[in-house]
Amino acid sequence: MATRDVDNSSELQRLLEKEKEKLMATQMVSKLTSVCWDKCITGTPGSKFSAGETACLSNCARRFLDMSMILGKRFQLPVLN
What we know:
Heterohexamer. Pfam families: zf-Tim10_DDP. Residues 16-76 form the Tim10-like domain. This protein starts with a helix and ends in a 6-residue tail after the last helix. With 81 residues, the protein is mostly helical. Helix content is 79%, strand content 0%.
């Protein structure tokens, strides 16, 4: 019975870690969206982004993810891959 408790505890711990990683990824995407939107979209967008807005959003997202990976490696934090 003690072995079963340890197995259940380990399984619960793995499940909690996966959920924590999902939450962190969701938070990162939310932050990325907010930061890049505020930086790149001026005024009210039309039905399509302009070429400049598209390039800005792409570059902003890339820089944000690169920096997140650098910080994650530096501080040994899980990062979005």
